[in-house]
Amino acid sequence: MKKNIIDIETAKDLLKIKKTILYLVIPCYNEEDVLPITTKALDEKMNDLIKNKKISSKSKVLYVDDGSKDNTWNLIEKIHSENELFCGVKLSRNKGHQNALLAGLMSAKGHSDITISMDADLQDDIGVIDKMLEEYENGSKIVYGVRSSRKKDTFFKKFTAEGFYKFMHLMGVEIVFNHADCRLMSKEALDALEKFNEVNLFLRGIVPQIGYKTSIVYYERNERAAGKSKYPLKKMLKFAIEGITSFSVVPLKMITSIGFIMFLISFLVIIYSIIVKILGQTVSGWTFIVSSIWLVSSIQMLSLGIIGEYIGKIYQETKRRPKYIIEKELM
């Protein structure tokens, strides 16, 4: 019986027939002001990509409502009923940006070949999607969207943001500089991400642990299209502590080093005290004693606080509570 032989070029043509199914995953928390603007922009972008045959017509935009207190979910339901390109997931309560993002990625995993996560405020330039798709076609399983500059940021914002990444590196956390959560992940990468079971989520630190071929694309970050920032300084500090204590034991090692240094200092203080006693100057030194007590006490409290952060994380991990609970799905 004669066998059918398909040459390489024909095989490539057959593979091109099946277009990549892309799901844009957009976490939302109290985004009723910006959602109509975001929806219009993403609708135009996705239809343009489908029209130019860069992605499959089965591709969708997945909004994840992170327990919003405003009209966000009602808007998502309305958008879904009017446009089949958009779908939604509603969490039972507010679980934080990282958990909402993970919920969206895992919900999209079974329906897509790749996902791209972006913020709902349009600060992530949607033009970067084309660059990410090109990198994916070139074999990258994970593509990081990285800010090309911070010219639009205030001095304080630039100083604290860049300081955050530099401090994370100093603490030994593997993280992509100036990368937030704008990234492309293939189905293989999402399958690997699902194997990470920690309750304390810091995706910027987890994703680099996956491996696979990765690449970086650069884009200019825009101003918010509407609404207010959901990441004030308080949340940024909490986020930094989460990342450090989830991926680094350097703070614990620092406590050991500080303890050793304090031991050496105390040894010198003992020698000084003996000399002062011999010279008959025991009345002097009150300021030194008080200062020493306050210094040592503050170091002890700081050390206990750092240890407490780690013990608290161990406590949360041992309970194995779900990272999120999905209340409704519009797929």
Q: What is shown here, in short?
A:
This protein is of the alpha/beta class and 331 residues long.
Topology:
Blueprint: H1 8-17, E1 22-28, H2 35-51, E2 60-65, H3 72-82, E3 86-91, H4 97-109, E4 114-117, H5 128-137, E5 142-147, H6 155-170, E6 179-186, H7 187-193, H8 203-210, E7 214-219, H9 233-247, H10 250-278, H11 286-319, E8 326-330
Parallel strand pairs: 1-2, 1-4, 2-3, 5-7
Antiparallel strand pairs: 3-8, 4-6, 5-6
Helix pairs in contact: 10-11
Feature tags:
alpha/beta; Spore Coat Polysaccharide Biosynthesis Protein SpsA, Chain A; 8-stranded mixed β-sheet; 8 strands; 15% strand; elongated
Describe this structure in words.
With 331 residues, the chain is α/β, with parallel strands linked by helices. It has two domains: 8-247, Spore Coat Polysaccharide Biosynthesis Protein SpsA, Chain A; 250-319. 51% of the residues lie in helices and 15% in strands. It has eleven helices and eight strands. The protein has an eight-stranded mixed β-sheet with strand order 7-5-6-4-1-2-3-8, with helices on both faces. α10 runs antiparallel to α11 (286-319). The radius of gyration is 26 Å and the shape is elongated.
